[in-house]
Amino acid sequence: MAELGEGAKGQGPTYNLPPNPLPQSHKFLRGKAGPPAPFSPTPLKGVGEGSLRKNVEQPPPAVLKQARAPAPHPPALPSKNLLLLLLFCIFLVVPVGATPAQENKIAVVASILPLGDFCRKIGGDLVQVAVLIPPGASPHLFEPTPWAVSRAARARVFVYVGAGLDPWAERLLHTREARNVAVVEAVQGIPLLGEAEEKGDAGHHHLESGNPHVWLDPVLMAGVCRRIAGALEKVDPAHREVYQANLQAYLKDLQALDREIRARVATFRIREFVSFHPSFSYFARRYGLKELGSIEVSPGREPSPRYLQNLIAAIRRYGVRVVFAEPQFSPRIAQVIAQEAGVKVLTLDPLGGRPPYGDDYLALMRDNLKIMTEAMQ
Ligand SMILES: [Zn+2]
After folding, report:
1. What residues flank ion ligand 1 with Cβ within 5 A?
2. Are the beta carbons of 6 and 49 closer than 8 angstroms?
3. Which of 25-34, 294-303, 317-326 has the highest mean predicted lDDT (pLDDT)?
4. Do domains 14-50+100-260 and 268-376 have the same CATH topology?
5. What is the pLDDT of the chain when averaged over all its residues?
């Protein structure tokens, strides 16, 4: 079932955000702590469509009879309009019962927002997704809140990145009783960029377990989405067709994104860039861009002055116009380097959770592409 009906309307899935987004201990966090933003569900293809369609397109016979009854002369309201009005009233009253109650949903936990979005797109309104990392926090520096611990304990599907990005997620997974939980580790089966890699001009990152930022390559994420669908089917085989249909629709979205990025990057005049930390390395490799170096090779640890001098020299040599900062970290060092090198600072977001893209991975990637275009075209 690769093709999906158009305009399917579904009550979107619920999407849990942590109640206390910014733990005090995160000195690198920016932005204000506050209540979680309400998640506005987007209509999802192929989910919940049957029940709503029935209500909208096949009203009960009694309604049709009323609507078609001969109108008094002159008619107070044209019968066609009356019919629409009645249908609209039914639409308002009925849909509440059309979605499964929250407690019947599959509890899904994802460590970071992009993985949570994949789960939401594939699980539709059959799942309730909790993302353990609050918006604005970095997975590298995160310590699980009690909220995260409780969500992890209830999860039936657990999705995390691996390769040292979210070791706390792995710990949460292992402390819970491993009963009936389907686990997806995103990096599994993906050859990781890391120590074997050629050194960049300003020295390259060395991460012990390889670079974990695989989710910023949308092509690699097709495989991760397939595995998420597989995990959902495992714990909820009755809805296999729904998961498969949602998966196929989302794979098409990922392909469209990939084509869009390729077309845009082909117009770039500058292909080198300086990242804040090696988060866009997989993106760079996929699309033929070159990460000259990162300001913080190891997130949270400040680079040496000598390292920064090399980085600035590389920026000048390659005619790089922009140094990228990231919203999860202080932009201070990026600003200092940019000033020294006479270039601008722009922000790339590897994680999402902020306007205008919110929790939507595709929108996040398009926004990052827009920023890169500004810097490199
Ligand atoms: Zn990172």
Report:
1. 279
2. no
3. 317-326
4. yes
5. 77
Domain-by-domain residue ranges, the chain? 14-50+100-260, 51-98, 268-376
Please name the residue ranges forming H helices in the chain. 49-57, 61-68, 79-93, 113-123, 146-154, 167-175, 218-235, 240-265, 281-287, 305-318, 332-341, 361-376
Superfamily of domain 14-50+100-260: Nitrogenase molybdenum iron protein domain (3.40.50.1980)
Say whether pTM exceeds 0.70: yes
pLDDT in tens, 177-198: 656 799 999 999 999 998 454 4
Give residue 316 CA to ligand 1 midpoint distance, Å: 25
CA torsion sign for 317, 318, 321, 322 is negative
Ligand 1 geometric centre to CA of 268 (Å): 25
Apex CA 203: angle with CA 215 and CA 301, to 5°?
70
What distance in angstroms lies between residue 5's CA and the mean position of ligand 1's atoms? 38
User: Could you tell me the strand order of the sheet in which 290-294 lies?
Assistant: 290-294, 272-275, 322-325, 344-347
Spacing, Cα 141 to ligand 1 middle (Å): 9
Q: What separation in Å is there between the alpha carbon of 298 and the centre of ligand 1?
A: 9
pLDDT over threshold 70, residue 374? yes
CATH homologous superfamily for 268-376? Nitrogenase molybdenum iron protein domain (3.40.50.1980)
